[in-house]
Amino acid sequence: FVFELGKTKGLNILKKVVNGKPGYWIHATGPDGSLRDWELEPQVELGSKEGVKLNTRPDFVLRPVRESDRQALGEWALYLDGFAYHWDKTQDDSRKRMAVLRSGRRVWSLGWHDLHPAGKEPEAAATQYVLKHRRPELLALYDKLAERAGWASSSTLTGLMMQGPFQLLVKVIQDPKALLPQLQQASTCDAIAWLHAPSLKAARWQEAALGLHQAVPRAVREFYAQQPENTGMGGLLAGLGTDVRPISLGVCIPVGALNSVERLKCEVSIHLALEDASAQSSKAFESDWRGFWQAANVLQFTPRFTLSVASDLEGEALNSLLDDWQINGAPEGGAPQEDPAWEEVFSLSILDRSVLIRLSATGVPAPEVGVDLVVGIETIGTAELCWLDRKVAVLAPSDEEVATPTGWILVPASTPSWIEQIVSALNG
Description:
The strands form three sheets. A six-stranded mixed beta sheet has the order 1-2-3-4-5-6, with helices on both faces. A four-stranded mixed beta sheet has the order 7-8-9-10. It is 35% helix and 21% strand. It is of the alpha+beta class and 428 residues long.
């Protein structure tokens, strides 16, 4: 893996000591000539001390060297798993990756076949899932929303998802500020294109025959059952005639979110599940297994995402990892809007009200709005939301290039997991 990184144009790999042990620095040059340094630390133990509910040891953790980049881009747990030793361990592997995701980190999976074999580009096994059964009329709906929001078109995103996981990871390293928003847009595009149109007019997602329970964990289904707003559903499910077994994909989008770009940014959910009962050491299952992990690489950028195996969907092992799903996805009616301090935040902040309600539902104290960030006698920018006593702040899009003052944690509001990062910083 490191050897292939070193052969890649625009990446320069140096051996370095990282956190007291041998590791690497990656000097990355972006398409526009911009420079960014990452550190690559091997065999990192993640557990309760790091906010990860299950102990796991990814092969590498990738993180930016600059603190300001690290706050914006976070840590990435890289798993380099071979099929021969992991084909029958998907239950344990998926739980651990889900625990890492719930800690606010990203995960990325690569296998032998995902690296460049001599003379040819590795295929993207996930395309047999992420580009299947998308409805043209709903892709057109996404394109209308994308034009309004300034997002990439569905055709551009289709080209992105046809690239292999190694190539995508390289692009993340070289140009994360351009690629990460497109990956979230790609998952949103798929979610909309997979919707079951009749469910937008009448609640149908609880109908067992449609098969959403084959992909969506119990805790998530219970959450949607409590919502006053109808939730559109869809995906790659046997009951919808879009079966791609042994993989199932469930989609849930509140109907009102289809009219709000801001709501789409935080309320779309995709749920990926592998039917582990069919696992076997065969070429056919290896293709499905690779497609599952590659799909997870791309779809994890959905605002709300789960991955699991079918045998875990009803069990406590997975659902206990989702015990704060309601907090992360609190409906408007469930937030403490009667709190005068939060009402002031809702009225003063330029951030979308539904996003602020999600933040308030986590239980963090109400922030100040529009606070100047001062270093010495110089005002270097404005914090849209600020907890002065904790030196924690959220930056609006117009101020995301502000340099981080010493001792502060600044999180851009464009970061998909900014709420989780703020909650972690305030609780830490």
